[in-house]
Amino acid sequence: MILSYAAIFGSVVIMGVSHPVLLPGVVVPGIADANGAAARAGLVAGDVITEINGQAVGMGDEATRMVVQTVKDSRGRTLHLLVQRAGSDVDEDDAEDIEIVPDRSIDGFGVIGVRLAAHVDKVQTVFPKTPLETVGMANSEFGTLFSNTLAGFFKLFSNLGANAGNLAGPVGVMQMGAEAGKQGALLTFAALISLNLGLMNAIPLPALDGGQLLLIAVEVARGKPLNADVTRTVNGVFLTLLLCVSLSLLVGDIERLIPPGVISSLEGILGLTPGQTL
Fold it and tell me: Measured in Å, how far apart are the chain's first and last C-alpha atoms?
């Protein structure tokens, strides 16, 4: 936690704090499915959705979540969008009405096959002017990072089966670190990794620091030590499980590095149908 805060503090001093200047609407940065409902209706990368079913979508992440939820809740019913076409000025007179009939996903929710993001006009960078202001900005950035990371943990463990595919192993972390370095965000990435490690180790599971604290608390409550053999056995079992999970994540990282053509060739050699797993 101390290392994470120090990295954030250093980032504030060296890089400042970036604040996006938002515009109304939700931008479509890319088409995820070339045959999806959005592509069939004529949406292209760079379009900005300003209204959905007659309701203004607002600005920022909240607007993005609102559009996503509206599409999911449509369950295949027609949606009426007011769209600012890519490359045009932000002027409602130039907006175009588009009707989209979302496809239905396996679980029954509406999908249109696009990526959505907040409509950002530009990013302003603010540098602290005094040591006190530096501390205040670092505290604010660390608090935001901490709350977002904690929320991510709750989301992960509340639906582990659905979110497990988003986990990355050591190879994936190295790739993300390399990308963060290219974008000049290595200190922020270091803070994020340190914070994740701190929170993960605080989980009260045997073989983790949080588990050891839990065992100590149990011993304090009992007034005597736990059986050493039992403690070693429990820690050993959970350590083995953690190592298996780490190995699984490493294998997933390596699979993502293998070109799809190589995987298809292997499937043909081994007699597997496409999509079937070993």
Answer: 40
Contact between 140 and 133 (Cβ < 8 Å)? no
Distance CA 217, CA 213 (A): 6
CB 105 within 8 A of CB 112: no
Residue 64: closest CA among 78, 44, 43, 49: 49
Residues 200 and 207: their CA atoms lie apart, in Å, by 11
For the stretch 240-251, pLDDT in tens is 887 887 777 676
Q: Which residue has the tokens 């056995």?
A: 233
- Structure tokens given for 221: 């409550």
User: 238: Cβ–Cβ under 8 A, 6 or more apart, which residues?
Assistant: 205, 206, 207, 208, 211
| Distance set, CA 40 to CA 31, 34, 162, 228 (Å) | 11, 8, 28, 65
**131-158 helix and 186-201 helix, angle to the nearest 10 degrees:** 50
Coil/strand/helix, residue 157:
helix
Q: Are 54 and 78 in contact (CB under 8 A)?
A: no
Dig out the tokens for 66 from the structure.
């609102």
Give the Cα separation of 11 and 159 in Å (integer).
33
- Residues in Cβ contact with 124 at an 8 Å cutoff, skipping those fewer than 6 apart: 18, 19, 20, 21
- C-alpha closest to that of 110 among 23, 183, 18, 38: 38
- Distance of alpha carbon 24 from alpha carbon 121, whole angstroms: 10
**Distance from CA of residue 5 to its chain's centroid?**
21
In tens, the pLDDT along 76-97 reads 788 898 898 876 665 445 678 8
Cα(272)–Cα(278) distance, integer angstroms: 8
pTM over 0.85: no
